Amino acid sequence: MRVLVTGGTGFVGGWSAKAIADAGHSVRFLVRKPERLHTSVGQLGVDVSDYAVGDITDRDSVLRALDGCDAVLHSAALVATDPGQTDRMLSTNMAGARNVLGGAAELGLDPIIHVSSITALFNPDVDTLHADLPVFGGTDGYGRSKAQVEIYARGMQDGGAPVNITYPGMVMGPPVGNQFGEAGEGVAAALQLGAIPGRSAAWTIVDGRDLAALHAALLQSGRGPRRYMAGGHRIPVDRLAKLLTEVTGKTLLAVPVPDTMLRAAGQVLDRLGPFLPFDTPITEAGMQYYTQMPASDDSPSRRDLGITYRDPRVTLADTVTGLRRLAR
């Protein structure tokens, strides 16, 4: 197939483009700045010669990019933790979904793969997240935008469009050129702090290479609408500290800060954010996800598509190695 990839200069899109190319398909990229292809996905050995310049919010440029393609992987999205960016996130991500997913359906592409997020299904009152849960979403701008797009994508599925949806957790692993993604930045912050706070808090870790393998496996036409969780391994704070200590050789402490205190700190820092001279990963929504995210049932992708999810120790080790290499 000839597959259009949006977000291909990012972490998830870059690894997915590599998996797609390695599976024998050809990749076209939709990019705003073509030079970024060479500092990101091009560093993985992917042919980046086929690209279209455009933006997911520009319908005409999206349709031009889709022309001549058989399938699409839509991983581009605006991600921000600043509450002041909420309206922009909502409008950008929704416009992107309408243009990319809707445009692909109009042109008859099959399959149409949409990279969602476990935040679209986040519900602290369930024990396990699975792909058939109703849309719930977090209270932050990003969670709301992913839930809004999820409703649109599921509406397309209900109408029979061959939309395939994946729900990644915290995507980590080796960098895509100079790209790590938000979860990789979280690892860097934990290493800098030397401690991981929380009691029942946890990270849900999925390797970018495994998520990419799932996306490549979905490139089958005629299969209709499908949804798959890819939340990864749920790693509680105490085990996370031990794993990071093992892979870094530097002692990281698990600090039993009450989860309610972390969420309260997030609320305070959200209000103080505009006045702080630095960015902080401690936000109300971030702490809600961190302290209340359920485990993810990824067994359907294992059963249906033969996907294997590697040991989180390997993922963390490769993430740390990449961070150290880029810091030199």
For this structure, the CATH topology of the domain at 2-175 and 207-232 and 295-309 is Rossmann fold
Give the oligomeric state of the chains in this entry, treating copies of one chain as homo and distinct chains as hetero. single chain
What is the chain-wise order of helices and strands?
EHEHEHEHEEHEEHEEHEEHEHHEHH
> Main beta sheet: strand number and arrangement?
7 strands, parallel
Radius of gyration: 19 Å
Outline the low-pLDDT stretches.
none
Q: State the CATH architecture of the domain at 2-175 and 207-232 and 295-309.
A: 3-Layer(aba) Sandwich
Name the average pLDDT: 93
Our estimate of the beta-strand percent is 15-25%
Mind telling me the CATH class of the domain at 2-175 and 207-232 and 295-309? Alpha Beta
Number of strands: 14
- Percent helix, as a range, is 40-55%
Organism: Mycobacterium dioxanotrophicus
Domain NAD-dependent epimerase/dehydratase: 3-230
Protein name: Oxidoreductase
GO molecular function: aldehyde dehydrogenase (NAD+) activity
